[in-house]
């Protein structure tokens, strides 16, 4: 099963990548694909919407935090 979850990148300041990753992998494990970027301090978000929709169509489950980010960005309006 594939999940869309956050992967921490920053050392001092928390900066996250939004990745498609296997459920059995740890948080900093090897991801299948990078699909976005999230900076909670600057409140910046970059999302690769076509790739995110592709993974959602294939059955990927977003975590609660990623689902909130996707709702704020109105990604679910683009889904058929």
Characteristic terms for this protein:
5 strands; 80 residues
Structure description:
By secondary structure, the chain is α+β, with helices and mostly antiparallel strands. It is built from two helices and five strands; from the N terminus they run ββββαβα. It has helices at residues 49-57, 64-72, and strands spanning 2-8, 16-22, 33-39, 44-47, 61-62. Strands 4-3-2-1-5 form a five-stranded mixed beta sheet. The chain is globular. It starts with a strand and ends in an 8-residue tail after the last helix.
Question: What's the topology here?
Answer:
Blueprint: E1 2-8, E2 16-22, E3 33-39, E4 44-47, H1 49-57, E5 61-62, H2 64-72
Parallel strand pairs: 1-5
Antiparallel strand pairs: 1-2, 2-3, 3-4
Low-confidence stretches: none
> Quaternary arrangement of the chains shown?
single chain
In round numbers, the mean pLDDT is 88
Bin the helical content.
10-25%
| Biggest β-sheet strands, sense, barrel | 5 strands, mixed
Elements, N to C (H/E)? EEEEHEH
């Amino acid at each position: 099963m594939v999940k869309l979850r956050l992967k921490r990148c920053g050392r001092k300041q928390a900066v996250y990548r939004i990745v498609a990753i296997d459920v059995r992998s740890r948080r900093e494990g090897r991801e299948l694909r990078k699909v976005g970027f999230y900076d909670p301090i600057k409140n910046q978000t970059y999302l690769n919407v076509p790739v995110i929709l592709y993974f959602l169509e294939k059955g990927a489950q977003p975590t609660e935090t990623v689902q909130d980010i996707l709702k704020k960005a109105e990604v679910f309006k683009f889904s058929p």
